[in-house]
């Protein structure tokens, strides 16, 4: 059992990939020919090399490289464009003052999500090969990367974090028609950049289409409920019961989550765990595309300390049955004691949708 959970923890990041929905979509190629079909929509958080597209729901799916894509419109969903960009990646090693902050430049095609569309300007969001969020602004025929530089500067044998919000100066230059536009308070985020562009468009009296405001899935879902746990080992048994809070994050179709448990223990006299407050904080994900989904998470708890890893089955992310265990359990307690997984039943009521 200890080996099983150790392997599970090592492969936990694999669950972050491979989750998709089949969504109706329109695909426009570089020759401006548009076809309808179905795309495997992964809610990409890293730039893919291709998309998987089928001309009909029963047809075979084939890979379409990004260099062949001009636009991908997902029905009732986001709009993407295939853009060729020279993407700078900044150095992760400390540099001297005046040193080159760019480690290398990767020129390739990116699947860029259209966040704001208007006649003069467009705002795009994409994820680079390091899964970092980048933004681009297009004005007429010019495409400009909005850079937010974070590097480490070495000075007199001491390291300092250095930040240069180049994007603020870039916005001021590109949006020169609006002399009263103040970009000093603009942050490198979707909402802040769109707010700045809305001020510019309002000054120029230009209508725009803001896709971000139409995305209902871009909000976390908070849920509160209760849990009860049973832990049996050679030294006795324990019951833990309390309240649980779950936050479903907007990425990956609300399948990523953060969870926190706070409870109390009803302990048998010979148990390893003493009566008192118990807590746990975890991060994980649901996987599967139906009402019944698998569930995997790991985190920190007062019972198992680090690497408290759980697996379970959930119905609509509301009711779940789980077991969790830490590969460090026998080290934490006593190698002579047989420490078994903890069984858990959880019910959560979503407070928002």
UniProtKB/TrEMBL annotation:
Source organism's superkingdom?
A: Bacteria
Protein name (Swiss-Prot/TrEMBL): Uncharacterized protein
This protein's species is Spirosoma telluris
| Source lineage | Bacteria, Pseudomonadati, Bacteroidota, Cytophagia, Cytophagales
